[in-house]
Amino acid sequence: MIALAKIREYRFVLLAFFISLFFHLYRLGHFELQGDEASGFLVALKMSLAKDDPKMAGHLFLFGHTPLRVLLDFFAIFCSHYSEFLLRFPNALFGALSVFPFYKIAQKTSSDFSSTLLTLCYATLGLCFGNRIAMGVGPYVFFQLAALYYLLKFMEQGAARNIYLFAAAIFLSIMTYAEGSIFLFLFF
Length: 188
What we know:
single chain; mainly alpha
């Protein structure tokens, strides 16, 4: 009986993920690059062309580009055909993947029906949320939600492993979105 409920739960989360993925990928490559997206792509392109030049490491933070964001932009460079879709795809994928930690947080903080409804509402945010553009917002939101989940889990269980995972998720979120560094005060 419990196993059947778990299967239904995971079926729902997968359905919410695919709804979110659809809304994140719908017409993703049909609008032109914005200023920050284009400069991020150029920084990643420079890094790929000058692989052995140590001076290029300073360009990682040029215009607020963080190292993990540049690595996400490498995805579009190493594919055989560059397009706006390929540049935005990693951010949209992380935005869609953020449904999973969101559901877990909603499950911990509300009833089953409320968590289901909240997750469905969150899954449809793909068209109006900032992670459809290649600025690192999608991974930032994913890692922030994962950090919140591990913090709630730490407060519930008290296991040290959860606080380490919380700190790792916060660090990864800061490394994907430059404006996310305002949360550095949490560690000092």
